[in-house]
Amino acid sequence: MKDQIKKLTQKYLSQIIDIRRHLHQNPELSFEEYKTSGYIQEQLSKLDIPYKSGFVNTGIVAYIKGKNPDKRTIALRADMDALPIQESSNLEFTSRNEGVMHACGHDAHTAALLGAAMILNELKDQWEGTILLIFQPAEEVFPGGAKLMMDEGCFDGNEPEMVIGQHVLPGMKTGHVGFKPGMYMASGDEVYITVKGKGGHAAMPHNLTDNVLIASHIIVALQQVVSRIVPAQIPTVLSFGKVIANGATNIIPEKVEIAGTLRTMNEEWRAIIKDKIRMIATSTAQGMGADCEIDIKDGYPVVHNNEVITDEAINFSREYMGDEATEIMDIRMTAEDFGYFSQKYPCTFYRFGVDQEEGETGSLHTPQFNLNEDSLETAAGLMAYMAYNFMMRK
């Protein structure tokens, strides 16, 4: 089967690359992926793969049924939205949409999933069960398309036994893949704090509440959440990247706004941390004579890779790719809405390398990002091989 899938991957590779280039040239922002969705539906129709569309307006779930389709169900997922970035890659197929770019590789994810669909569809008389193909909108914008698709009942009672997803990784060699059993990516919440008090002339601070000073104390005090409250074995980050104190050299403003991000790898401690933030910020402000408003917007949950499934996926990758090309990765403090799937279903979310042989690949979410299209051979072929083997499990 490995040789069959490798041959089929080669057979379809030029089509997969063409799909990726079309998507790259025609990117659409989160919740606006109407033409992208239409194009994917056209590709599925050409393959005679049935599907349902319209989840969160643009999301699609397609169905490849093998022999004995009720035996088991697994799902393969790709996201399809782009970012509000002006591309500067100078590719022949550079974005036609001003200020919109596939700078996070979602074009490659979608093309690879369609490629895996081509392969699995051709082999459907050789495996049992049903494979769901999830083409998901709005990974880049909270609350995330994954949650919204599930809220709308995208599986329609045909609950998957597992969900598999993949993501590009600059910095990893093309032809390599990486896995991390257990906790892999952090939750991502947004923290907004507003300090309010009496402002006025900076030369007479004794008549005021120095809201700038108080906000500074709150930022410093909150660092004890990570350093002294959360257990050291739980990776946690609390960072503040925005402070607005709209006063002047001689004016202390009546309010100061602070905004930051909370990342952690533990859902139970995630809730505890948010309570501690509220308590510390409020008590610090009140102790210095000011009021404090706190708004914590819940972001994506932790991405947890089921240990049993991920260990099996690693073994399948070693069979297909070889030991050297199959890497074990460390955790990442970035967030992904695939976490919603991993909180509900056994999942594995892995990376495939996209580094260019020559020149700069560029970082994710930058105008220069590009990828080595040879990586699509890995992305489509390995996903198909893993799906086949998971379908054939006893």
Can you describe what's shown?
- This protein folds into two domains: 2-185 and 302-391, Zn peptidases (Aminopeptidase, 3-Layer(aba) Sandwich), CATH 3.40.630; 188-300, Alpha-Beta Plaits.
- An eight-stranded mixed sheet has the order 1-2-4-3-5-16-6-15, with helices on both faces.
- The protein has nine helices and 16 strands.
- The chain is elongated.
- It is 35% helix and 24% strand.
- It starts with a helix and ends with a helix.
- The model has no long low-confidence stretch (mean pLDDT 96).
- It has 394 residues and is α/β, with parallel strands linked by helices.
Helix content: 25-40%
Largest sheet: 8 strands, mixed
Arithmetic mean pLDDT: 96
Q: What is the number of helices?
A: 9
Taken as a percent bin, the fraction of beta residues is: 15-25%
CATH H-level homologous superfamily name of the largest domain? Zn peptidases
Protein structure class: alpha/beta
- Secondary-structure element pattern, one letter each: HHEEEHEHEEEEEHEEEHEEHEHEH
Number of strands: 16
Task: Summarize the entry for a quick read.
With 394 residues, the protein is an alpha/beta fold. It is 35% helix and 24% strand.
Topology:
Elements: H1 2-25, H2 34-46, E1 51-55, E2 59-65, E3 73-79, H3 106-122, E4 130-136, H4 145-151, E5 163-169, E6 177-179, E7 182-185, E8 188-196, E9 200-201, H5 211-229, E10 236-244, E11 251-252, E12 255-264, H6 267-287, E13 291-300, E14 303-305, H7 307-321, E15 326-328, H8 339-344, E16 347-353, H9 375-391
Helix pairs in contact: 1-3, 1-9, 3-9, 5-6, 7-9
